[in-house]
């Protein structure tokens, strides 16, 4: 292997630069803006608020995720990301602490250059942390793709995605580093899938470390 | 007595059964229900199939229409899958516009089966005329794993489609349809979807019923043709380890081979 390709390979194992700001909006109980490379999403959490009678659970809080695309109204494919977001946050939030209420998590796409679902999950999780709702665990999502030549590339950008034969997004919890959600696009083999999980799991540590740094930075103002 | 116990404390009812490694319907946790496939059930459609998984019933009809190709893909036609969950199939659904679950399911089925047909073969004349396949899946009985039944029904129905030959006159812009010369659509892959439910955050139930789905803490769907995987869809819920995921994938692969054999036999019996 020539030195240039090996350095490229190292490059591919890195996540794109991760930037985050908390408390960016004044109305929500918690908000966060996250950008990973050029992909940016903003999230706001309202809750616990009064739930509509048809959405009230006597033993837990109802979680509602709203996903808004950059332009236009949410369409059918967006419903699928919305359902993934909703169920992921439902697992992360300690819903039994606020029975008969509703917690709304709104996520607005700002820019998409690959890995938007992962960015949305991370923004949502940071917004929930900012809101102070009790959580079972934190979630971090990592996006990866399988290149046409079989390589697994972590956190690809739009340009790299053009050469992909499959794209996967995984979300992990911070306690046991198990899989909270998995969503895939394209076809792949079982070994490729296992390899992708392993790579994304080691990358999620980096995101949890970033979460920690962010909380440290904001701890004085959040108190 | 059991019926009262079940309605008062459904979770405990299931726990008691699963402690004995059996489900209330008599299956072991990893056993799937019987699948029934019937090809060409609607004679008036261009392709159709009925699929039953236990009580779950989905009927799929395909209507081929001539249309104008999309501007960004002038040489190909397109497929429009749609899943309908009418109020007839379950008390959870009301009449009106498609529920959120139906929309999510439509999107899932479209994604899982996107690689089945090479859309170029549906093109007739560049930028002028192409086949549009409207694939409608209607659930008649909602008893869990409806998305699995939809994928199997779509795969079977697509194999029964016979498109008539069409000549397109570029000068007069008129198509001529030869109804007696029909060719089938070339289907590239054969995805089969298998769903799982996680009960009490640790027990994995294969092919859950609607009741098991509603009591579950997480759900997982694997789409595979026995070799390659087309989708591993786990929208949140309680966490799973890789080993558990691996077990689910192997169960799904085994079932995919069985179901694909079943589809082959069902489609073969129609052609005679």
TrEMBL record, chain A:
Listed GO MF terms: RNA binding
InterPro entries: ExoRNase_PH_dom1, ExoRNase_PH_dom2, ExoRNase_PH_dom2_sf, PNPase/RNase_PH_dom_sf, Ribosomal_Su5_D2-typ_SF, RNase_PH
Gene3D superfamilies: GHMP Kinase, N-terminal domain
GO (cellular component) term, any one: nuclear exosome (RNase complex)
UniProt subcellular location: Nucleus
Pfam families xrefs: RNase_PH (PF01138), RNase_PH_C (PF03725)
Any one Gene Ontology BP term: rRNA processing
Boundaries of every Exoribonuclease phosphorolytic domain copy: 15-134, 139-197
Keyword set, alphabetical order: Exosome, Nucleus, rRNA processing
Top-level lineage group: Eukaryota
SUPFAM superfamilies membership: Ribonuclease PH domain 2-like (SSF55666), Ribosomal protein S5 domain 2-like (SSF54211)
Membership in a protein family: Belongs to the RNase PH family.
Protein name per the record: Exosome complex component RRP46
Organism: Thrips palmi (Melon thrips)
TrEMBL record, chain B:
GO terms of biological process kind: exonucleolytic trimming to generate mature 3'-end of 5.8S rRNA from tricistronic rRNA transcript (SSU-rRNA, 5.8S rRNA, LSU-rRNA); nuclear mRNA surveillance; nuclear polyadenylation-dependent rRNA catabolic process; rRNA catabolic process; TRAMP-dependent tRNA surveillance pathway; U1 snRNA 3'-end processing; U4 snRNA 3'-end processing; U5 snRNA 3'-end processing
InterPro entries associated with the record: ExoRNase_PH_dom1, ExoRNase_PH_dom2, ExoRNase_PH_dom2_sf, Exosome_comp_Rrp42_subfam, PNPase/RNase_PH_dom_sf, Ribosomal_Su5_D2-typ_SF, Rrp43
Ranges of residues in domain Exoribonuclease phosphorolytic: 32-164, 191-255
Top-level lineage group: Eukaryota
Pfam families: RNase_PH (PF01138), RNase_PH_C (PF03725)
Entry keywords, A to Z: Cytoplasm, Exosome, Nucleus, RNA-binding, rRNA processing
Chief place where the protein resides: cytoplasm
Family: Belongs to the RNase PH family.
Record-given protein name: Ribosomal RNA-processing protein 43
UniProt organism field: Thrips palmi (Melon thrips)
């Amino acid at each position: 292997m020539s030195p240039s390709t090996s350095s490229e390979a190292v490059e591919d194992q890195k996540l794109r630069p991760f930037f985050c700001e908390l408390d960016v909006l004044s109305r929500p109980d918690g908000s966060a803006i996250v950008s990973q490379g050029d992909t940016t999403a903003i999230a706001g959490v309202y809750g616990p608020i009064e739930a509509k009678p048809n959405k009230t659970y006597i033993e837990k809080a109802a979680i509602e995720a709203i996903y808004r695309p950059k332009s236009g109204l949410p369409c059918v494919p967006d419903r699928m990301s919305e359902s993934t977001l909703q169920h992921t946050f439902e697992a992360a939030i300690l819903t039994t602490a606020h029975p008969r209420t509703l917690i709304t998590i709104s996520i607005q796409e700002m820019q998409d250059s690959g890995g938007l679902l992962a960015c949305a999950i991370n923004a949502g999780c940071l917004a929930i942390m900012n809101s102070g709702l009790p959580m079972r665990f934190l979630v971090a999502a990592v996006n990866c793709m399988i290149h046409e030549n079989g390589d697994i590339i972590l956190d690809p950008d739009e340009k790299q995605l053009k050469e992909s034969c499959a794209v996967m997004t995984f979300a992990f919890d911070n306690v046991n580093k198990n899989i909270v959600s998995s969503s895939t696009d394209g076809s792949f083999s079982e070994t490729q899938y296992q390899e992708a999980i392993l790579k994304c799991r080691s990358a999620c540590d980096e995101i949890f470390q970033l979460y920690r740094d962010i909380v440290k930075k904001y701890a004085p103002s959040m108190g | 007595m059991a019926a009262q116990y079940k309605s008062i404390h459904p979770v405990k009812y299931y726990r008691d059964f699963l402690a004995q490694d059996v489900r209330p319907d008599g299956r072991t946790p990893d056993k799937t229900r019987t699948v029934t496939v019937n090809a060409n059930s609607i004679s008036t459609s261009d392709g159709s199939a009925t699929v039953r998984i236990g009580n779950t019933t989905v009927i799929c009809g395909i209507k081929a229409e001539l249309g104008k190709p999309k501007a960004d893909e002038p040489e190909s036609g397109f497929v429009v899958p749609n899943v309908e969950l009418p109020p007839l199939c379950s008390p959870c659904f009301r009449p009106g516009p498609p529920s959120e679950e139906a929309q999510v399911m439509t999107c899932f089925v479209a994604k899982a089966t996107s690689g089945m047909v090479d859309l170029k073969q549906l093109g007739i004349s560049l930028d002028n005329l192409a086949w549009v396949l409207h694939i409608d899946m209607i659930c008649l009985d909602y008893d869990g794993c409806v998305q699995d039944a939809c994928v199997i029904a779509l795969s079977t129905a697509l194999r029964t489609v016979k498109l008539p030959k069409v000549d397109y006159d570029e000068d007069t812009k008129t198509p001529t349809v030869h109804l007696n010369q029909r060719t089938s659509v070339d289907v590239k892959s054969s995805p089969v979807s298998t769903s799982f439910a996680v009960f009490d955050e640790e027990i994995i139930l294969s092919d859950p019923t609607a009741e098991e789905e509603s009591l579950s803490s997480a759900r997982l769907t694997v789409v595979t043709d026995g070799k390659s995987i087309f989708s591993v869809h786990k929208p949140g819920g309680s966490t799973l380890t890789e080993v558990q995921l691996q077990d689910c994938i192997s169960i799904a692969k085994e079932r995919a081979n069985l179901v694909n054999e079943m589809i082959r036999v069902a489609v073969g019996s129609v052609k005679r």
